[in-house]
Design goal:
Layout: H1 2-32, E1 37-52, E2 58-72, H2 94-122, E3 124-127, E4 130-133, H3 138-142, E5 148-153, E6 156-157, H4 161-174, E7 178-183, E8 189-194, H5 205-212, E9 214-216, E10 225-226, H6 231-234, E11 242-246, E12 249-250, H7 254-267, E13 270-277, E14 280-287, E15 289-291, E16 299-301, E17 304-305, E18 311-314, H8 318-345, H9 356-368, H10 371-390, H11 397-410, H12 416-447
Helix pairs in contact: 1-2, 1-9, 2-8, 2-10, 2-11, 8-10, 9-10
Length: 448
């Protein structure tokens, strides 16, 4: 239940921040264009809080926190007091109406840049892009070896595992060959190509990632921590010892060591560990014991802790951080439009869409990882909100912009009948999109 309430809380924070910023864009530009704003609402439905400002605008928070709106003085919605006619929305020049409508997505774009900028200045903790491949997977057949460090993907330098996997995921959706530059554990660089075009069309990202088989490399089999008084310490093991074998079975990395200890201890708790210390081989006789660690189920242990993955923190000064935020915004914008295009054409599965449940879960996860990660999440959702609202769908900002562009071309407003038909089409499209996203969220929950 803690996860549930955490997801709900961070979803409300996310929607509250981004919707407020989006609607404030409409409000701010409308006021500068001389349009009277009647109501500024964050959320829909009955107001749970409201007040009248000095400017006569009613500010409120609605009971349904899934959006918001700015209600302006509009002759299409009723009679307008002649004294206020110069503050009415439809009477303004078309370029002012375009500016007011475009301001919402525009402010979301500004928020995206600002969030990325602050994130890069604070520093986002991550791990190095050191990877391995699942045996017999596509990544293994392409030449990925345990301990390879990804240096660049499709010509773009990557410094963290998150950046690397973001690029891989985007390429997976396009199913195009993906060139990599990696540096092996021997220090030599190699050029590889992941043949993503061989993947079947119409699958989800999770299915593609499973077939690709590219994973974070487990740390080396080094005893980073040797707990005093435990079997390994009593047998003479020291911090920094490299574990070579358990009962004669070779240990390639720490993950293999973690599996071998309980597997061999079940047969006999008397284990023989081959180690290297300062380059010299040694044999240790270790008697494993059954123990419950931190409330976990009882298991065979010897009191050894492994090393952490190599840590990397992306942290820049203000000027470089701003440049990085521009690059991140541009790259994610291109990737989003690319995904939309591929879903429309059928090249990418619509199962990749997420709705409010998916957003809530990711909001909670990113918040638990720290402020820089939550800022990145807010930046990506804000960018998605900007792009979604710019789509030429009636009822969205992009639909209104389309009407105004038509008005610029033909010299007169779009007819009321066309707008009514457009509203029905827009409602159908939006409800279909929301229903599909909600179905995907529920489907993922049932499978998890």
């Amino acid at each position: 239940m803690t996860s549930f309430f955490g997801s709900v809380f961070w979803l409300l924070v996310t929607l509250g921040v981004l919707v407020t910023f989006h609607e404030f864009g409409h409000y701010w530009v409308a006021r500068r264009c001389g349009v009277k704003v009647l109501r500024f609402s964050v959320g829909f439905g009955n107001a749970i809080w409201k007040r009248i400002g000095r400017d006569g605008t009613e500010y409120q928070i609605g009971a349904i926190p899934l959006g918001g709106y700015v209600k302006m003085l509009d002759a299409r919605e009723g009679e307008v007091d002649p004294a206020l006619r110069d503050q009415e929305f439809t009477g303004k020049p078309v370029w002012k109406r375009i500016a007011i409508v475009a301001a919402g997505p525009g402010f979301n774009l500004i928020f995206t840049l600002a969030a990325f900028w602050v994130m890069f200045m604070l520093g986002r903790p991550d791990v190095a892009p050191i990877v391995t491949a699942v045996p017999h997977s596509m990544a293994a057949e392409a030449g990925i070896q345990p301990g390879d460090r990804i240096l660049s993907i499709d010509g773009r330098t990557v410094g963290t595992l998150t950046d690397a996997m973001d690029s891989v995921v985007n390429a997976l959706l396009g199913r195009t060959p993906l060139p990599l530059t990696v540096r092996g554990s021997d220090g030599r660089s190699r050029q590889l190509v992941l043949p993503l075009e061989q993947l079947p069309a119409g699958q989800t990202v999770d299915q593609y990632l499973k077939e690709l088989g590219l994973d974070l490399a487990p740390p080396p089999a080094i005893a980073a921590i040797v707990m005093p008084g435990k079997p390994a310490a009593l047998a003479g093991m020291q911090g920094g010892d490299r574990i070579v074998a358990v009962n004669g079975q070779p240990v390639a990395d720490y993950a293999v060591f973690q599996k071998l200890v309980p597997a061999e201890a079940v047969k006999s708790p008397h284990l023989q560990l081959a180690i290297e210390r300062a380059g010299k081989p040694m044999l240790l006789a270790v008697d494993a014991q059954r123990e419950s660690l931190q409330g976990q189920p009882v298991k065979w242990v010897i009191g050894v802790g492994g090393p952490e993955p190599e840590q990397v923190t992306l942290r820049y000064g203000p000027i470089r951080a701003f440049g990085a935020s521009l690059q991140a915004t541009w790259r994610n914008t291109a990737q989003t439009f690319n995904l939309i295009g591929k879903m429309v054409s059928g090249q990418a599965s619509t199962n990749n869409l997420s709705g409010v449940i998916g957003i809530a879960q990711v909001a909670n996860q990113s918040a638990s990882m720290g402020l820089p990660w939550f800022l990145q999440f807010l930046a990506l959702i804000s960018l998605s909100l900007a792009i979604l609202n710019l789509l030429p769908i009636p009822l969205l900002d992009g639909g209104h912009l389309l009407y105004y562009l038509v008005e610029l071309v033909k010299g007169s407003p779009v007819s009321e009948q066309v707008m009514i038909v457009g509203q029905y089409i827009g409602l159908a499209l939006l409800f279909s999109l929301m229903g599909l996203a909600f179905y995907n969220d529920i489907h993922r929950m049932l499978l998890s």
